[in-house]
Amino acid sequence: MNIGIIAAEEEEMLAIKNIMEDIKESKIYNLTFIQGTIQNKMCILVKSGVGKVNASRTTQVLIDNYKVNYVINIGSAGGINEELNIEDIVIGDKLVQYDFDITQVGNYEKGEICEIGKYIKSDERLINLCIQTIEEMKDINFNIKIGTIGTADLFSADPNRAISLKKEFDIECVEMEGASVAQVCFLDNVPFLVIRGISDVSNGNNKIDFHTYLERASKRAAEILHNLISKI
């Protein structure tokens, strides 16, 4: 079994690399693939870079070259749900590209992609394993929510925009890669999951919070991943 793991930024990638054993590295194009084990399962970790195109391209290269059985996208996100705090975790049961808009050319909703739909659902088995993982983590001092994650090529610190997005898409958090990873996996018929640690919340201070808490949020997401992989 091969488990592909995609992170966008260096801090997110290093948080995962630190829990891997028996590491070796190889390059394809300008991407560095880190092979090793987590919980005795073979994992292939790669940093995609920020944004939907980078994430999509990296996902396809990963699938084509390593024949992965699962893809897990892990990293940080900005909290939209008012119940979320920095370092909480969101696990995406479905993903939406909230900046995708073809509403003026047909009977489409905002976020709806032709022949795919508005929301892309994560693998049901992986979600169920996440639920088991959460139930076993009894002594944690942070929240873990399962819900919708929104993706766009956009970073916004505007609290009013966060309120609007929550109302329109019912999303828990926003980031810049997850739904594009989901789209590639959906098209390639590869089970996927997106895990996000909250690095900032929509309070107008996102720029400051993001860089301050990125590493901490990434480590927390890696902790969930470590416990989850033991069950896959």
Overview of this protein structure:
- The chain has 232 residues and is α/β, with parallel strands linked by helices.
- It has one domain (2-229): Rossmann fold, CATH 3.40.50.
- The chain has six helices and ten strands.
- The protein has a five-stranded mixed beta barrel, surrounded by five helices.
- A hairpin with a 2-residue loop joins strand 3 and strand 4.
- Helix 1 (10-17) packs parallel to helix 6.
- The N and C termini lie close together (9 Å).
- Residues 204-208 have low confidence and may be disordered.
Helix content: 25-40%
Shape summary: globular
Which assembly state applies to the chains in this document? single chain
Beta-strand percentage range? 25-35%
Structural class: alpha/beta
Helices, by number, come to 6
Give the SSE map.
Elements: E1 2-7, H1 10-17, E2 21-28, E3 31-38, E4 41-47, H2 52-66, E5 70-79, E6 89-97, E7 120-121, H3 124-136, E8 144-151, H4 159-169, E9 171-175, H5 178-188, E10 192-201, H6 206-229
Parallel strand pairs: 1-4, 1-5, 5-10, 6-8, 8-9
Antiparallel strand pairs: 2-3, 3-4, 5-9, 6-7, 6-10
Helix pairs in contact: 1-6, 2-5
Q: Which properties best describe this structure?
A:
Rossmann fold; 232 residues; globular; alpha/beta
Quick take:
With 232 residues, the protein is an alpha/beta fold.
